[in-house]
Design goal:
The chain is of the alpha/beta class and 425 residues long. The chain folds into two domains: 203 residues, Rossmann fold, CATH 3.40.50; 164 residues, abc- transporter (atp binding component) like domain (Coagulation Factor XIII, Chain A, domain 1, Distorted Sandwich). It is 22% helix and 34% strand. The strands form four sheets. It has a six-stranded mixed beta sheet with strand order 5-6-7-3-8-9, sandwiched between helices. A six-stranded mixed beta sheet has the order 12-18-17-14-15-19, with no helix packed on it. Helix 3 crosses helix 4, helix 4 packs across helix 5 and helix 5 packs parallel to helix 6. It starts with a strand and ends with a strand. 33% of the residues are buried.
Length: 425
């Protein structure tokens, strides 16, 4: 246990659906008498079904070991059990079964304003939180200026926090959690309330304290880019069980679940067109991957594919735009074709395209195809667009060195070399 910050053994948590406590002995007796007499529970909230007694297992047996200094992302769909797990670790609630061993002091941010007293000022709440963590006044005095500066709330630090906005709450609460004397930080989606600049600063701070001070971080978020940026390991929860634990990128792919979209031949003819931003002059019909029988692309290679599209009305010219994105829709790069001519009315055009993706690192990607007309002035007329027209995977089976710009923690948006096209009509 000396190298472990947290050890979780077969933790389960059960709730009773529809059961509402009376909050007082009198209320409980009223509810019990109503149940015995077959009458409606006077303590049932409007819109609920009352005391059904159905059991719901939020956690169904979690086993997990977290080492000191780890930055663990916990991801999963709503209702997967993420917040329940963090509440158990924070001792907000107790498990129905199982054991949790914690080696170190914990600071938790489970929701906006957790641990703050609304009538106290920001400064007073800093001292209150520090005292709860077992710090004396001298230690808090040493860090309070740094906490206030980081929180960006210096102007309002002597104002009662009940007058703070939700963003100010988060800034101050995070600053306290990051600077006070604790070994484990637990964050449950709270940074989503803060502005973009503070989110970036907070993520940098968490990375810094994890590496320099050896703090352990558990971070729940639906923002996959922040999980990539902060975490070195990841856990996927699904319906109260651990579905995957390990590499961050593999965990994200497991969470997003896109394996069934790996098709060499992709047809779009039978789709319903409802988007009014496209003028319906041209419609994409199909995309076929060329020269290979699998969607796995060796690192350093290019992609060749055939596009077929129907020119419903005559247009003087059209261009193709290809956008490469990760499966969470974070965009990686884009490429444009040269001008395609000869788009007469009611003909089907067929063009072979070559896309240079040789700088991509290993992982799964989607290709967005856009047909449009435009000029250098910024004018653009969109004809059609398909999201994930092709899903492909970059692999490196021969251990070839790839000197690309991108990695899994720092995605950007780049312009690729021009899309090479050959008219096959």
């Amino acid at each position: 246990m000396s190298d472990l910050a947290i050890k979780i053994e077969n933790v389960k948590k059960k709730y009773r659906l529809g059961t509402i406590g009376g909050a007082t002995l009198r209320g409980e007796i009223q509810s019990w008498l109503a149940k015995v007499r077959g009458k409606e529970d006077p303590n049932t909230l409007i819109g609920t079904k009352g005391q059904s007694g159905d059991e719901f297992w939020a956690l169904k047996g979690i086993d997990l070991e977290i080492e000191k200094g780890d930055r663990i992302g916990i991801i999963g769909r709503n209702g997967a059990g993420k917040s329940t797990l963090l509440k158990i670790l924070s001792r907000v609630t107790a498990p129905t079964d199982g054991k949790v061993y914690i080696n170190g002091k914990i600071t938790s941010m489970l929701e906006v304003g957790t641990g703050f007293h609304g009538e106290l000022t920001g400064r007073e709440n800093i001292y209150l939180n520090g005292a709860i963590l077992g710090m004396n006044r001298k230690k808090i005095d040493e860090k309070i200026d740094e906490i206030i500066e980081f929180s960006e709330c210096g102007e309002f630090i002597d104002t009662p926090v009940k007058r703070y906005s939700s963003g100010m709450y988060v800034k101050l609460a995070f600053s306290v959690a990051a600077h006070l004397d604790s070994e484990i930080m637990i964050m449950d989606e709270v940074l989503a309330v803060g502005d973009v600049n503070f989110q970036r600063k907070a993520l940098d701070k968490m990375s810094e304290v994890a590496k320099s001070q050896g703090k352990t971080i558990l971070y729940v978020s639906h923002n996959m880019s922040t999980v990539r940026r902060l975490c070195n390991k990841c856990v996927v929860l699904d319906e109260g069980v651990i579905k995957y634990q390990g590499n961050v990128e593999d965990a994200i792919q497991e969470y997003l679940k896109v394996p069934d979209t790996m098709q060499i031949h992709n047809t779009f003819e039978n789709r319903e067109i409802t988007d009014e931003q496209f003028n319906k002059k041209i419609r994409l019909l199909s995309l076929d991957l060329l020269d290979r029988d699998t969607n796995q692309i060796e690192a350093g290679e290019k992609i060749r594919f055939n596009l077929r599209f129907h020119c419903i009305k005559a247009v003087s010219r059209t261009y193709i735009r290809c956008i490469v994105s990760k499966m969470d829709d974070s965009r990686v790069g884009t490429a444009f074709s040269g001008e395609i001519t000869g788009c007469a009315e009611n003909i089907v055009k067929s063009v072979d395209c070559e896309l240079d993706v040789s700088t991509l690192v290993e992982g799964r990607y989607g290709l967005v195809i856009i047909l449009f007309d435009g000029d250098g002035s910024g004018y653009q007329e969109k004809y059609d667009m398909i999201n994930n027209a092709l899903v492909f995977e970059i692999v490196n089976t021969i251990d070839r060195p790839v000197y690309g710009e991108w990695d899994h923690t720092n995605w950007g948006y780049s312009k690729y070399p021009e899309l090479i096209i050959e008219d096959k009509t």
